[in-house]
Design a protein that fits this description.
Elements lengths: L1 H8 L5 E3 L1 H20 L1 H18 E3 L9 E3 L4 E10 L10 E9 L6 E3 L4 E9 L17 E9 L2 E9 L6 E3 L6 E2 L4 E5 L3 E8 L11 E2 L5 E4 L14 H5 L36 H18 L1
Antiparallel strand pairs: 1-2, 3-15, 4-5, 4-14, 5-13, 6-12, 7-8, 7-11, 8-9, 9-13, 10-12
Length: 297
């Protein structure tokens, strides 16, 4: 944590250079000095090679997000398009209908490429380019250096296709098929920019849009579907749902409901009383009932 805070407070600590690029820059500087000794304007031609070598060697420290089942951008660049297409056969994806996120990287972007998901590298194909094609102006041009990588996590796959110019060692990979990879960790180098196509499952909810600038190893593109996203009875047949255990609540010993006893009163029901015709007898019976009721109280 303290290391991350130091990097944020001092941005220059996040920048690094490959030793190969530094050696190439020193060689270009020597050539520039020799050319300048012959004719001074030639020095600037050689010095342009120094700048190019340093650009190809530049990289930056990245802090991957702590996100379960997350998908991050494999490289720096700008989103060109997000569309549903069929994945290239070189990726060997089990699901051909995928969502493709196309990213364009300028030559000035950092050269590291990062693992899009945490899991394993299932397959890898690297195609060498032609020296006569120094720049990748279009992603499908002939003669480009290309790399096809398929990453897998819990049965779900994400494919990455890298493309760069064919001149020089433009794409170098440090992982092999079968390696376990972590989210947002460098798995290789792509020098002087190019193209990157990320193929994610069709049901992935992406969080980016065309024109957005991405930071390799940090910007979240989406999230793979996890088992927790499905309902409890999702995928179960009707028979299996009927056989599913039902939660029962223990109520203790079974008891019969209590019946409230009716209180006896001294007043007979209307059916049990015969009404005399003589009013005097009626008043005598009422006085007798009132006297008995007073004695009970």
């Amino acid at each position: 944590m303290s290391e991350d805070l130091d990097r944020k407070s001092t941005p220059w600590l996040t920048i690094g250079l490959d030793w190969e690029g530094v050696a190439a820059a020193l060689g270009a500087l020597l050539v520039a000095l020799l050319l300048g000794a012959l004719w001074s304007p030639l020095f600037w031609i050689g010095f342009a090679g120094v700048i190019l070598a340093l650009m190809a060697a530049r990289w930056s420290h990245r802090t991957p997000p702590e996100l379960a089942n997350g998908i991050v951008s494999p490289c720096d660049g700008v989103v060109v398009s997000v569309e549903r297409v069929e994945a290239p056969s070189e990726l060997r994806l089990t699901e051909s209908a995928t969502l493709r996120i196309r990213v364009a990287s300028a030559p000035s972007t950092t050269n590291k490429v990062y693992t899009p998901i945490a899991g394993s590298l299932e397959s890898l194909i690297l195609e060498a380019g032609e020296n006569g094609v120094p720049l990748a102006t279009r992603p499908d041009d002939d003669g480009l250096t290309r790399a096809y990588l398929t990453f897998e996590s819990r049965g779900q796959q994400v494919g990455v296709r890298l493309a760069s110019g064919g001149f020089g060692p433009r794409i170098e990979l440090i992982t092999e098929a079968g390696d376990i990879v972590r989210l947002g960790r460098p798995f290789g180098t792509r020098r002087l920019g190019g193209w990157c196509d990320i193929y994610v499952p069709g049901n992935t909810g992406v969080l980016i849009w065309p024109g957005q600038t991405l930071v390799g190893g940090e910007t979240v593109l989406g999230r793979l579907k996890s088992q927790g996203d499905t309902d409890l009875f999702d995928g179960m047949t009707a028979e299996e749902q009927e056989q599913a255990p039902v939660l029962q609540v223990e109520t203790g010993a079974e008891t019969e409901p209590e019946v409230e006893e009716e209180e006896d009163d001294d007043y007979p029901s209307p059916d049990e009383v015969s009404v005399p015709e003589d009013p005097a007898e009626i008043f005598a019976r009422l006085r007798e009932a009132a006297r008995k009721h007073g004695e009970q109280d």
